[in-house]
């Protein structure tokens, strides 16, 4: 059964580790992430962007697929199905479709409007038992059409949003979606420290998890990050493994063109990446 992300993130914050959110795109992605979580006894969050939601034909299809897999793969670890960078309307659709968690990304609105819309969603999510992520500041780069300037969050604004009763808070601290440029200035731990001091027990979320050096991940966790989002890295390893299989001509041999064979190396590569991240984030054995 899908669960809200609330318990797993509060435990992670208290235990000084982070739960990974891994974005999914199809059946192979979902199967790989769930298998990695179950085999490593780790809680996990399946992230779905609005673009990936459309690609998979809609939120109800995703809920059906994930619930089926939880049962037929005998998944017993806590799993949350979470809308990533959602609009207000997207959140409403996911709540109705059966997601267990949503992110309302109101970071591009003036703070008053972000507060007003987040307040409304806090009420609805509380009534329905879903977890809610809000965002302040912005994540640089682009993910599925969501573009951010990358400005660091104002800690006072973070406190205002946290005080509304959201479950988790994403704050821009110099993090970027996609690959980090060579001249990247790194995460602003000064900003993160100020946010954590003002928001207390609130689990903080680090977006743009692809390519952040390990020591920065550890430092972020020590300063209150309890959820880390990873998307691009799984896409890259999937593409690399699939390319290798095709370039080796394996798709032309025997029944190598069978999609179940063609997609297997990429699926295994996603699973290996997810396991690596779970170890780095410290969530292994925490289910
Ligand atoms: O919302 C999802 C993420 O923040 C993932 O970022 O693609 O850089 O790993 P990433
Ligand atoms: Zn993100």
TrEMBL record:
Alphabetized Gene3D superfamilies for the sequence: Aldolase class I
Task: Kindly list the positions annotated as binding Zn(2+) 1.
Answer: 85, 177, 207
Query: How and how many cofactors are bound, per the record note?
Result: Binds 2 Zn(2+) ions per subunit. One is catalytic and the other provides a structural contribution.
Q: Which residues bind dihydroxyacetone phosphate?
A: 178, 208-210, 229-232
Q: Name one Pfam family in it.
A: F_bP_aldolase
Q: Where does Zn(2+) 2 bind?
A: 105, 135
Q: Name the coenzymes or cofactors required.
A: Zn(2+)
Catalytic positions? 84
Q: Highest taxon of the source?
A: Bacteria
* Keyword tags: Lyase, Metal-binding, Zinc
GO BP annotations listed? fructose 1,6-bisphosphate metabolic process; glycolytic process
Q: Which GO terms describe its molecular function?
A: fructose-bisphosphate aldolase activity; zinc ion binding
Read off the NCBIfam families from this record.
cbbA (TIGR00167), fruc_bis_ald (TIGR01859)
- Name assigned to this protein: Fructose-bisphosphate aldolase, class II
**Taxonomic source organism:** Anaerobium acetethylicum
